[in-house]
Design brief:
Helix content: 25-40%
Number of helices: 9
Order of helices and strands: EHEEEHEHEEEHEHEHEEHEHEEHE
Shape: flat
Number of strands: 16
CATH topology of the largest domain: D-Maltodextrin-Binding Protein, domain 2
CATH architecture of the largest domain: 3-Layer(aba) Sandwich
CATH class of the largest domain: Alpha Beta
Strand order of the largest sheet: 2-3-4-1-5-12-6
Oligomer: single chain
Structural class: alpha+beta
Distance between the termini: 30 Å
Radius of gyration: 24 Å
Bound molecules: phosphoribosyl ATP, zinc ion
Largest sheet: 7 strands, mixed
Number of domains: 3
């Protein structure tokens, strides 16, 4: 069986973006009736739609070759499993960003993380939380919650929580204050460390190369502008992540040129203002859809 199986989240914060990313790599799928297994149409790459918590195990057991999951889940799984069974992080992905933070009740009186020594901390990530706290010289007891961790202090089950935070709204709504960030997380593509048959590995390498193209294109822009010929060097330096621009003559205007460049970093309004200040005009910023090589 030389087909590649990719596990992604069935429904949740990472589902849509994971699927969109794979589709932008040129993958198309025939959806099965139960919607759990999607068969790859043009490539031997199939999808398995599962709960995110199951993804590390599917990789470790060799059921899937690739998986997209939050680093928080992958790190927790790696700390729970023995070291001979590790996942390999292949690429970080630009979505699913959040942080695992310690939070304590408002007016709890805790002054520093050290005060949590010997306390009970409710979390869905006990192994990750303990490992980070241990590295800070703090030994705390963790109480495992699968969801709604934020209600634990109110119930008297824990003194503090260690939970994922993105906007902080959930903490505020539960009268908790963020105390310390333990771990920054983002979605990532994982593989297994096992050696794969050559054909499978080649297919994964091809997918990774397309993925790199998609990720690079996402933050790249094609910039076109007119510039005074003697300001070309200054203007090139002002373009974020650009190298070797193309220059073209402007008919009837020997003192100015048209300059085209690919900027491999985000182009902000401030950059455009600086370009204008250096003499650029007719500045156009276009999205880049695909990139290779
Ligand atoms: O059903 P399944 O098990 O697949 O999904 P799930 O409910 O376990 O996961 P889901 O879809 O909620 O999250 C999937 C992944 O998204 C997580 O593993 C993280 O990697 C990432 N992610 C990013 C988040 C958040 N942001 C996030 N804010 N996961 C959870 N939250 C929760 C957090 O636990 C807390 O309850 O949102 C709340 C806090 O959000 P704010 O905005 O109020 O701070
Ligand atoms: Zn989950």
């Amino acid at each position: 069986m030389n087909r590649i199986r990719v596990a992604i989240q069935k429904s949740g914060r990472l589902s849509e973006k994971s699927l969109d990313l794979l589709q932008r790599c040129g993958l198309r799928f025939a959806r099965s009736k139960d919607k759990l297994y999607w068969y790859g149409k043009d490539f031997p790459i199939d999808l398995l739609l599962v709960r995110d918590d199951d993804i590390p195990r599917l990789l470790l057991d060799g059921v899937c070759d690739l998986g997209i999951v939050g680093e928080n889940i992958a790190e927790e799984a790696m700390l729970e499993n023995t070291a001979d069974n590790n996942l390999e992080q292949l690429r970080k992905l630009p979505f699913g960003g959040c942080r695992l933070s310690l939070a304590v009740p408002e007016n709890s009186g805790f002054q520093s993380v050290a005060d949590l020594d010997g306390c009970r901390i409710a979390t869905s990530y006990p192994a990750l939380t303990r490992s980070i706290l241990t590295s800070k010289g703090i030994s705390a007891e963790t109480v495992k919650f699968s969801g709604s961790v934020e209600i634990a202090p109110g119930l008297g089950t824990a003194d503090a929580i260690s939970d994922l935070v993105s906007t902080g709204t959930t903490l505020r709504a539960n009268h908790l204050v963020e105390f310390e960030v333990l771990f920054q997380s983002t979605a990532a593509l994982y593989g297994q460390l096992e050696q794969l048959p050559v054909e499978k590995q080649n297919m994964i390498d091809r997918l990774l190369s397309r993925l790199d193209g998609v990720l690079l294109a996402a933050e790249s822009k094609y910039v076109m502008l007119h510039a005074p010929r003697d300001a070309v060097d200054t203007i090139t330096r002002l373009l974020p992540g650009a190298e070797n621009p193309s220059l073209m003559n402007l008919e009837g205007d020997p003192g100015r040129v048209a300059l085209h460049a690919v900027c491999r970093e985000t182009v902000f309004w401030e950059h455009l203002e600086a370009l204008k200040g250096a003499g650029a005009s007719a500045i156009l910023v276009l999205p880049v859809e695909k990139m290779l090589g």
